[in-house]
Design goal:
It is a single chain. By secondary structure, this protein is α/β, with parallel strands linked by helices. It folds into two domains: 11-269 and 472-490, Aldehyde Dehydrogenase, Chain A, domain 1 (3-Layer(aba) Sandwich); 273-453, Aldehyde Dehydrogenase, Chain A, domain 2 (3-Layer(aba) Sandwich). The protein is built from 14 helices and 24 strands. It is an enzyme of class 1 (oxidoreductase). Belongs to the aldehyde dehydrogenase family. One of its GO terms (cellular component) is cytoplasm.
């Protein structure tokens, strides 16, 4: 396991955190048929580790382990579950340097960003540790004499958590924390690109004494076994809920597969965020917001600015200032100090960005800076700014998921709102203005689940994260995040 010419384990303060086996019922296990697949460092193309490629039978075993652990875990008091979550939070914070190194090695985001993700991911544990104590029920006056109505909230049961590679720590804790707080047990399907970050969470959970079977992680490679794993989680009647973060296309498939068992579902799916800069905006703030939204994680976030609309009067000046900032960004190995742009997750991701640039240029766009893949080892693409982008370009209807800022020109508020909403998805959106009336007017008209006004960063453990239209349903984080893992039960007592 090497990164930057060194053994990854040797760079960790606690090498035992680096695990390369699945975690089922408190045991570290290989695939039952010894199948394995490599974990690749996207910055170098080197192999970091080999992990098990588990067949469907082990997914079933993980579900059964979670089912067996559910009665005792759900019977704990909320205060006891809170204590476990706070211990896991403390463990994550105390090992944040090691967790960030593992994350950067397999994901490719700059080390400073990885450290930020670990803090963000740990925040879900502390937030939902508190929310565990606030799963209140209520009473309802009865319509029938001599009866009393009480509504209690209980955990839904075993939860299948299917998480993405772009935030390999935080997208797990954002689902895991409310599930455990509610009293559920879980089976996590680790992303094939970044399984090590999922497994290190299990190592920490084991260390703080979370009981066997409460957390299970299965590891499968892309292809038939991944499809079989998803299918088993959806059709197995012991699983009561699926939480998925990923593409809209896969979300549709999982929803179809879950229909036979009518599971509770929450999906955070694709986005195509509009980022609007009005002519009364503070342009320097708008540029910094664009950098934060568009180029974080090399543009590989579901809420990053995919379409940047700039009002005509300030279009040229904004493009100039943005290009100046982007040209100063440093591309390189994410372990190196000062690097702003690391590799994309793999060469297929680079191919997509290249295709979007070529398509846009073919339809009249101008490359102001960047525009090319970086030669040599690793999956790198230059941070890029395009101007005069046609609304007929492929990137208007597809998430680029890369470091490509595409600028469109608009004239009126009405026009840009129409363009911003002209998409089948609606996850996040942004705009910059100093007009207070416009703040509320535009925010209320945007067809998205989350709006950032004069900021390019919206994600926090304390807010509800989710979208509308084909960006999915349900919310993660915030006070409503735990609701996704609970049911309401009526208890009516008569003849009082």
């Amino acid at each position: 396991m090497t990164i930057h010419g060194q053994n990854l384990a040797s760079q960790l303060s606690n090498p035992s955190l680096l695990r390369t086996k699945g975690y089922i019922n408190g045991e570290w296990v290989d695939a039952s048929d010894d199948a394995k697949f490599p974990v690749i460092n996207p910055a170098t193309g080197a192999q970091l580790a080999e992990v098990p490629n588990m067949p469907c039978g082990q997914v079933t075993a993980a579900i059964e382990a979670a089912h067996a652990a559910f009665p005792s875990w759900s019977a704990l008091t909320a205060y006891q579950r809170q204590s476990y979550l706070l211990k896991l939070h403390a463990a994550m914070e105390s090992h944040h340097e090691d967790l960030a190194l593992i994350l950067t090695a397999e994901n490719g985001k700059p080390l400073a960003e990885a450290k930020g993700e670990i803090a963000y991911g740990a925040g879900f544990l502390s937030w939902f540790a508190a929310e565990a104590l606030r799963t209140y029920g209520h009473t309802v006056p009865a319509a029938i004499p001599n009866q009393r109505n009480t509504i209690i909230r209980q955990p839904v049961g075993v939860c299948g958590l299917i998480t993405p590679w772009n935030f390999p720590n935080a997208m797990i804790t954002r689902k895991l924390a409310p599930a455990l707080a509610a009293g559920c047990t879980v089976v996590v399907k680790a992303p094939a690109e970044t399984p090590l970050s999922a497994l290190v969470i299990c190592a920490l959970a084991e260390g703080v004494g979370i009981p066997k079977g409460v957390i299970n992680v299965v590891v499968v490679d892309k292809g038939p076994r991944e499809a079989a794993c998803g299918m088993e989680l959806c059709v197995n009647p012991l699983v009561s809920k699926i939480s998925f973060t990923g593409s809209t296309a896969v979300g549709r498939l999982l929803m179809q597969q879950s229909a036979s068992t009518l599971k509770k579902l929450s999906f955070e799916l694709g986005g195509n965020a509009a980022f609007m800069v009005f002519d009364d905006a503070d342009l320097d703030l708008a540029v910094e917001g664009t950098i934060a939204s568009k180029f974080r994680a090399s543009g590989q976030t579901c809420v990053c600015a995919n379409r940047i609309f700039v009002q005509s009067n300030v279009y040229d000046e904004f493009a100039h200032r943005l290009a100046t900032r982007v040209k100063a960004m440093k591309v390189g190995n994410p372990m190196d100090e000062g690097v702003n742009i690391g590799p994309l997750v793999n060469d297929r991701a680079v191919d997509k960005v290249e295709r979007h640039v070529t398509d846009a240029v073919g339809k009249g766009a101008t490359v102001v800076c960047g525009g090319s893949r970086v030669s040599g080892h690793g999956s790198f693409f230059e941070p890029t700014v395009l101007t005069n982008v046609s609304p007929k370009s492929a990137l208007t209807s597809e998430e680029t998921f890369g470091p490509l800022a595409a600028l469109f020109k608009f004239d009126t508020e009405e026009d840009v709102i129409e363009e911003a909403n002209n998409t089948d998805v609606g996850l996040g959106g942004y705009f910059y203005t100093q007009d207070v009336s416009r703040v509320y007017r535009v925010a209320e008209k945007m067809q998205v689940g989350m709006v950032g006004v004069n900021t390019g960063v919206i994600s926090q453990p304390c807010i509800p994260f989710g979208g509308v239209k084909q960006s999915g349903f349900g919310r993660e984080g915030g006070k409503s995040g735990i609701d996704e893992y609970m049911i309401e039960k009526l208890i009516t007592v008569g003849n009082i």
